[in-house]
């Protein structure tokens, strides 16, 4: 069924007997879900010369032969000019492919079939996966795959990548088509070839869909429409959104915080029953280094792993349910006044998990000005690493109140910081790009999906942070134990904290907390671990010590500073890679540091003036 026109392509003998399959599709069609299903757990980041971003690839056995699958970025149009569309075109021009798998949303086939027609016009071998077939059926969309396959001259399958429906039949067809494809293909002069097919007319789309696809004349009032009447209400929409986010932090506080005690008990048992007996024969200084320099720091961070798992699971439910896209819709009018748009809001929401993928997500924005302004505000998002810092400090300095409210106030403050920044610089970064978003239907994420998503995020979080945490804890131990015999503020670390006291005292941050913030520049996870090392105590003892020595307004000022000040090292590197400008990167660092100090100063001195202590 697959056509291949030699006038538009160049045939290349595939080297090393490895065939290549590329997945292509629009955003939010389940393409990555299909990629994960067909490749299992073998995916890794590939090295593609000439392509500036990471592409996931996986090597699997298909038809008894090694086959390479590549997950290309989601795009709307091969003729588009967004960064993701440029990456796909660069890939097509420079790397040979044996087969394309087009993943489209079956319930939106009338608007997505254009991409399949573009692939057909280039004469590329392809198999079409109409994903989310269960939703299409629910909405009354009827598709005759055999007739549509004949009209497209491509194999077409209705599947559900999430549940696996129709997957095996599609898998067998992919194997069959790939086996029949004897030669790899890449495209010469892609821009020229696309210009020759400059427009795919409505008539052409209708001729392909006619008789094969039956769309309901008027979408029936379904669950999604009924829910949207409430959640997208012009007056109630935003209050309900913020209520929902408060509930997220309430669950994190009431369920996640008690889990810390269980982890503390576990790490305490490991230390007493396993580590201390083993290191007993070693010199005292070595024992101190292993327990206070490494173990206490790592154990303190580890105690927050259940809380982080819970947070990522809740965020996965929000995103996979389709509500995150609606938050962009709700905020777009307000964000537009600041020179941003709804996508900027979504990116900041993504930053609650980690700022790094949120910064990378700005590639979908065609406007460079919009990208830069969005990248300037994303680091203010309350990421998972900061979350554990805030939970730890709030539990210590606000033990008898409603900590969930205090935590939620920091979430709101992250938006205030973003709003202030956008308002200050919207004239510098002028955006004229229109905002277009496709609202997916509400979905009920499967337990397996949510757990896998949560575990994947946590695993990446721990892999990224573990090296930084170990390095940070070791470094903190050395500077708080040198010169030999010195203690407290007489150590190198204490002297550094005292040196910065004229700057940090006005915002209520003592030398010990200042030192923790300095190491938090490497990774925010180190802040808590470094406190355990600085005080030479385990997490429970550190928490009690902070309760005894730090007031609530000092602790809250510390949290404000930690929220806004210079982001972690990984975020800075990502910021530079995305902005391609050291000048912009340095400006972002200096601005966030200054804003953090000003915000903490206003709060701390204002609280003192009102009589709080």
What labels would you give this structure?
single chain; 613 residues; alpha/beta; 27 helices
Descriptive report:
- The chain is of the alpha/beta class and 613 residues long.
- Helices cover 60% and strands 9% of the residues.
- The protein is built from 27 helices and 11 strands.
- The strands form 3 sheets. It has a 7-stranded mixed sheet with strand order 3-4-5-2-6-7-9, sandwiched between helices.
- Helix 12 crosses helix 17 and helix 18 packs across helix 25.
- It is elongated and about 80 Å long.
- 42% of the residues are buried.
Q: How far do the termini sit from each other? A: 77 Å
- Output the strand order for the largest sheet: 3-4-5-2-6-7-9
Range of helix content: 55-70%
Average pLDDT, all residues: 81
The quaternary organization reads as single chain
* Overall morphology: elongated
Give me the Rg, rounded: 27 Å
- Percent strand equals 5-15%
- What's the tally of helices? 27
**Care to count the β-strands?**
11
Low-confidence segments: 1-15
**How does the helix and strand content classify structurally?**
alpha/beta
